[in-house]
Structure formats: C-alpha cells, structure tokens
Design goal:
Helix content: 25-40%
CATH superfamily of the largest domain: Dihydrodipicolinate Reductase, domain 2
Catalytic activity: D-glucose 6-phosphate + NADP(+) = 6-phospho-D-glucono-1,5-lactone + NADPH + H(+)
Organism: Shimia sagamensis
Largest sheet: 9 strands, mixed
Number of strands: 15
Number of domains: 2
Function: Catalyzes the oxidation of glucose 6-phosphate to 6-phosphogluconolactone.
Number of helices: 16
Protein name: Glucose-6-phosphate 1-dehydrogenase
Radius of gyration: 24 Å
Strand content: 15-25%
Family: Belongs to the glucose-6-phosphate dehydrogenase family.
Structural class: alpha/beta
Shape: globular
Strand order of the largest sheet: 14-13-12-11-7-10-9-8-15
CATH architecture of the largest domain: 2-Layer Sandwich
CATH class of the largest domain: Alpha Beta
Distance between the termini: 28 Å
Length: about 475
C-alpha cells in the first residue's frame, strides 16, 4: 500500500529546547521523515532555540549528527539530509530574559503558520508564553505545543493552564501525548466507529472486561531523580493509560471533530467510580542478576514511590455498568509490550458440553508496541477426524504486513507535529481533560499516602507483584501474559 502524502501549509516552526534530548531523538528526526516523504513545503522554516550559545551552522551540525544517530543509513541519503538542513536556523534565546526575542520576531513570516514547540521544563511554559505575547511574536493564529508532564497534581495543572491561557486561546494550545500519535491508537476510533461489526457489541452486555497493559523491560536508572517524584501513577496512568481508557470507553461522538471527540473523552473520566485501596496494587522492583533495585536506581532507600501499579476501575454509565477495566504499567517487567485486550463474554448457552475446558474465550487484542496490529481470538473446530474438538486460533493483522513497513516506520511525533501545522486538535488533550484526569488521580494518591503503605517488592523480569495477579483472580479472571 502506498501512503497518500498531503502537504501542509507553509510554516515557521520554532523549537524551544532544540538542543535537548527530545528534540534530537524525536522532533527533528521526525521532521526529516516528513521532509523525505514530501509533506513539508519547500519554504518551511524550522528555527531552533535554546540557551546554548551556538549559531545556525553549529545547530545544523548538531542535527546532522542526530539524524545520523537515530535514522538508518538507507533512509537518510546525503543529498536529502543536506536539503533538509537548509531549512534549519538557530536563535540563542534566554527564556527567562530578553535575549534573542527581537531577533526571532524578525525572521518569522506573517503569512506562514507560526508554531511554537516547547520542548522544555514545564516551569518555563508560562515565561515563554508571556514573552511570545509581549514581544508581538505570537499572533491570533499561532499554535503552541507543550510536552508532559503537564502538572504534578490538579493544582499545578490548573496553574499551568492559567499561565498559557493568559496569552493563548484554548484552540491554540496543543498538549501533546505521543501515545495518541501511534497508528494503532488512532485506529481505535476507526475500528469502533467505522465498522458495524464491533460497535453493537461494545458494551457490558457482551464484554466481560478490558485489560490495558503498558510494560517496560528497563528500570529508571538515569532518570531516577525525576521518576521518584512522580511514580507510575503520575508518569503513565494519569496520562497515557487514561487516554487509552477514554478511547476504548467513550461514546460515539456526534461528528469527527476535535471538540466532539474530546467532549466524549472528558465524559469517560468524569464517569469513573471512586477506587478502593483494595483495588490498587503498587510495587517496586528488587535487584536482580543484571540490575540494581529501584532503591539503588533512585538513590533513596526510603522511597515509597511505585515503579509498578495495577488498578481495577469502573466506568459508571449505562454502557459499561458491571464491566471492569484493569490497568497495569511498570518497569523491569518481563518484556516491553503495550496492548489493550477487550475480552468478550462466553455465549449465553453452551452447546458443546465438556469441550470448552481451558478455552480463553473471544478477545480483541490491540497491540501498540512493539509490533503494532490487531488480533481477534476466535474458537473453531480443530481440523481432522474424531468428532467435534474445539481449539482457538488468532486472526492476526500486523500493520507492518498489511500496510507496508514504510507506513509503519512513521513515528508518533512526526504525525502529531503535522496535525499541529494543520490545526487539528483531535489527538491533543484539552485543558479540562487534563484537569479532570488529575481530579481523578489526586484522591487515589492522597489515599495511599495517608495509609502510609509501602509498595510491595517484585522480581525484575517478572509480570509484577503476586498481589496484582490476585487482583484479577478475585474476579475469576487472569492477566494476559506480557509479551504474548
């Protein structure tokens, strides 16, 4: 299959924090991919900005090295890299002072789409937004992109929103979550709302439960200082897993517009029932043969921050009454894997007595990584003579096989950045959505802090704590194997 490439309007993209790790690993290589695909207009401008006192030539050298490091050689012909670098320039800017702002204003074009990407600490969001406004750099049509973490709790998220809204309207603000740029995540909406096969079954009458898993095989070494202040709840559940839950549980929007979709997502968060402490499992990985313990990685022997969390949630509305949602995420688990499993109920009447033992039942498995795709588990007759014997088979669609490796090689960041240029906010979080997620998460965090409970230890390379298995067993269910 050949991808249809629709060029975007001429744009001036200013990247604050352009010499940082995220810009080097994701943002600039992603933009090169879009340039290589022919989606960037010939007069596009990409303007790097940071505290580093370098010039445009030095910035181009830095990004050339990043492209060489993070993009395979066969995908970066020298002549294309050279052409792409010609679109780059650099302005040394002091985010907290006055250096560089007038120079930046002078190189931006009034007719181009102005986009400001804040790949910086959230503590700088307000200062940069203020200076963009006061120096007459931001226009009414400008767009501003901000990265997570978007707040540490409800109060800080509200403060960040107020800082941005002083200088930009909500329709100009793009709160990016790279999980929503994954091909499979975007396909959730198409799968549900463009196919009559699934939507009539998408409710508590037919679905027994839903599992959402985001497992990582690495620990927190190298970022222990940040992680020990956030933990799995703040780092993953409140944003990434919450977004996946919303896409699975949301009602069909009246139309496919950004606000209609996001309205339905907010309704899901607001419908979440209070969660009892008995329905939460928090863990910390032990040391192993090849790794240190969580305590060692964060250099805090008294830490009570979780590196693993599993929760049982309930969405209190007519569609999902009685259908539990199980969420889990953690570090140092047996494999790197992210998936959503929609497990259907058994048929109301079994006409195959004694032939259904060991059957796992129908399930729709939506794989987000590492091999994006969709699997539908069905029960069939086992081939051969000897009577009716039942077995289970997977109807599997790997997106790389079905759509081609070239389509699947696209990174989430490059898709989302092009959406910003188009002005499409569908896959970006709205301010009230962020605040609703924190309003749900804060009481849970406060409850376990008041209970003064230590996270339970678990072995590296496992599926997490035994207590998480019991969380499922209490309802007569089992987690899917990680990496299955």
């Amino acid at each position: 299959m050949v991808a249809r490439v629709i060029p975007v309007e001429p744009f001036d993209l200013v990247i604050f924090g352009a010499t940082g790790d995220l810009a080097r690993r994701k943002i600039l290589p992603g933009l090169f991919h879009r340039f290589r695909a022919g989606q960037m207009p010939p007069d596009a401008k990409i303007i790097g900005s940071a505290r580093s006192d370098i010039d445009s030539a030095g910035f181009r050298e830095l990004i050339a090295a990043a492209i060489g490091e993070f993009i395979p050689e066969e995908l970066r012909p020298a002549e294309l890299v050279s052409e792409f670098l010609n679109h780059l320039s650099y302005v040394h800017i002091d985010a907290m002072g006055e250096t560089g702002w007038s120079e930046l204003r002078g190189i931006l074009r009034p007719e181009a789409v102005r986009t400001f990407y804040l790949s910086v600490s959230p503590s700088l969001f307000g200062a940069i937004a203020e200076r963009l406004s006061h120096n007459d750099i931001a226009t009414l049509e400008s767009r501003i992109v901000v990265e997570k973490p978007f707040g540490h709790d409800l109060t800080s998220a509200q403060a960040l929103n107020k800082d941005l809204l002083r200088h930009f309207d909500e329709q100009q603000i793009y709160r990016i979550d790279h999980y929503l740029g994954k091909e499979t995540v975007q396909n959730l909406m198409a799968l549900r709302f463009a196919n009559s096969l699934f939507e009539p079954l998408w409710n508590s009458t037919h679905i027994d439960h839903v599992q959402i898993t985001v497992a990582e095989s690495i620990g927190v070494a190298g970022r222990g200082g940040y992680y020990d202040q956030s933990g799995a709840m703040r780092d993953m559940v409140q944003n990434h897993l919450m977004q996946l839950l919303c896409l699975i549980a949301m009602e069909p929007p009246s139309k496919f517009t950004s606000n209609s979709v996001r309205d339905e997502k907010v309704k899901v968060i607001e419908a979440l029932e209070p969660v009892a402490l008995d329905d939460i499992v928090r863990g910390q990985y032990r040391s192993g043969r090849d790794n240190q313990s969580y305590f060692d990685d964060v250099e805090n022997a008294n830490s009570r921050t979780e590196s693993y969390i599993a929760l049982k949630l309930a969405v209190g509305n007519w569609r999902w009454a009685g259908t539990p949602f199980y969420l889990r995420t953690g570090k140092q688990l047996r494999d790197r894997a992210s998936e959503i499993a929609v497990v259907f109920k058994d048929p109301p009447h079994n006409i195959f007595p004694n032939k259904m033992e060991g059957r796992k039942g129908n399930a729709l498995i939506i794989r987000l990584q590492p091999d994006e795709g969709i699997t539908l588990r069905t029960t069939i007759k086992e081939p051969g003579p000897g009577g009716m014997r039942l077995t289970e088979v997977d109807m599997d669609m790997s997106f790389a096989d079905a759509l081609g490796d070239s389509l699947m090689s696209q990174d989430a960041y490059e898709r989302l950045i092009m959406d910003v240029i188009r002005g499409d906010q569908t896959l970006f979080m709205r301010g009230d959505e962020v605040e609703a997620a924190w309003a749900w998460a804060d009481p849970l965090i406060a409850a376990w802090e008041d209970a003064n409970q230590r996270p339970v230890p678990y072995d590296p390379g496992s599926s997490g704590p035994e207590e998480a298995l019991m969380l499922m067993h209490r309802g007569g269910r089992r987690w899917r194997p990680i990496g299955d």
